[in-house]
Every structure is written in structure tokens, then in C-alpha cells.
Amino acid sequence: MKVGDARExxxxxxxxxREGGLFGADGEQQTVWMSHGHEVAHLPHGxxxxxxxxxxxxxxxxxxxxxxxxxxxxxxxxIKVITNMVGPEDHVICxxxxxxxxxxxxxxxHRTIGNRLHSVFLENGxxxxxxxxxxxxxxxxxxxxxxxxxxxxDQFLSKLKGVVDPESKRKVIGREIINAFDDFAQRLDQELxxxxxxxxxxxxxxxxxxxxxxxxxxxxxxxxHPFLGPGLAIRALGDVTEGNALHILCQVDEIFxxxxxxxxxxxSICSNEILPLSVNETQEADGGKxxxxxxx
Length: 296
Hints:
alpha/beta, five-stranded antiparallel sheet, four-stranded parallel sheet, about 25% strand
């Protein structure tokens, strides 16, 4: 990815360059919703450009043989794209975190294919205070699609034992997330007699809350601050399995969040973190890039 020559925002036309799983005939034109300032600089191995914007930026890519696709635009107006990609009897897994982006992605796909979508909330032992209980309760009371909670705490913490470096922690967690979803896919294969063909995952965009309101996603989800995949692991110093490091950080994090809410600041800021004071130990994400911080 690289910073684009011009920011693409709002309704724009894209032009199909490759007939395949995503689109119809070459030369077809579609109106989509853009919201980004970056563009693809080099295609990953195996992928081909499927569509471009009017400015010539890559709007969609695909690896047809492996049925892998990526879109550079918001798909809420592209229900037909999902319908074209997912066969009438295909099943799909969704990585549901309870965050804004994954909730919107789950809502959108579930409205398109119904109960052939199997949403999974993964408890990895690295979540915020009572996060699993809060999310599953809100799902039950407010959303209209099923979510399976998979408790993989022991799996994740056993693999993180002895790991100190933040980037190494991130790689371990990423690998175990893949393993956990692969295990779930295998269980579905045994139950359904067919293996799910796609994995749905949301991604953050500046106007994602407005999109969520258009889809009638409950405010409880839209107001949540993002809490990226590695969770408390990269916010904790050293080995997260030693002593009660995770428990202490989890409690401090909850006190901090509650203080923001008590001060009526939570809804006016986009994210928050509590970080231990130590040089070059933890990492924080900023606009898609990771930076080591003198304050965590």
C-alpha cells in the first residue's frame, strides 16, 4: 500500500477489468462508496486486478483459483457482489469480535445469506474486563443473527508462555487465530457435510459508524472503541502468563475506561489505551502501521 495521489471519498464509479467471481463482463461499470487515502502499490502474489476506480486506482483484486477477494470500497451497496461470490448452498464463517467493523460486516452478510453465515466470537484470554460477557449479552438482546463463542484461552496462553517481544507475541496470536478458525471450519465440515468456503472479516473506515446506523446496528456496538486483535498481550510487559500480569492490566484498563465514561468523554474520542510505562516494550497501532513507543 502507498499514500494515493488523491483521496477517494463518496460515491464513485469503478470499472471492471477482469471477468470472474466478483464481477460480470469486462468493462462493466458500478457505483460504489469509497473512503480511503491509500492505494495498492504492488499486488500480492497470485492476485489480479478485478476493477479500478475512475482515477485508475485498484478498487478490487482477486485470486480466482483460491476464491480470495479484496475490495477497496465499502460493500454495503454491493449485496449483489456477495450473492455472486457465495453460491446458493455455500456456507461462510465470520470472525465476529463485537467491534464496529465486524458487527457491520456480520450484519451485511447475514442479511444476504441468512443462517448459512456462521459467526464466531473468539475468547483468547486477552480481552478487556468482562468483554466476552458484555458482547454476547448484547448479541443475544439486540442482534438478529447467531454467534458461537469459542473459548480458546488455554490454547493462546500456552503458546504465549515465555514470549516477551511484542512483535513475536503478535505473530503467535495471529497464527493461533488462524488455527482456531480452521478448527471451527473442520467442525462445521463434520456437522454440515461441507466445508465453509469464505471467511468474513471487517475493517475500520472513518465513516463506519454512519454505515452502521444505515444498517440499524445497535448504538451499543457503534460506540465501542476499537481494541485490536492482539488485545492485552502487547500492552503487557514481558511474559503475559507470568503471575497475574493480565489480571492487573485488565483491571487497570477497566478503571481507566470507566473514568473516561464518568467524565462524559468516551463518546467524544475514537479510542483509548492504558499502557505500562516502559521504553520500547509494547506497541501501538497508528493508521495501519505499528510503532514502538517510549510510553508502551
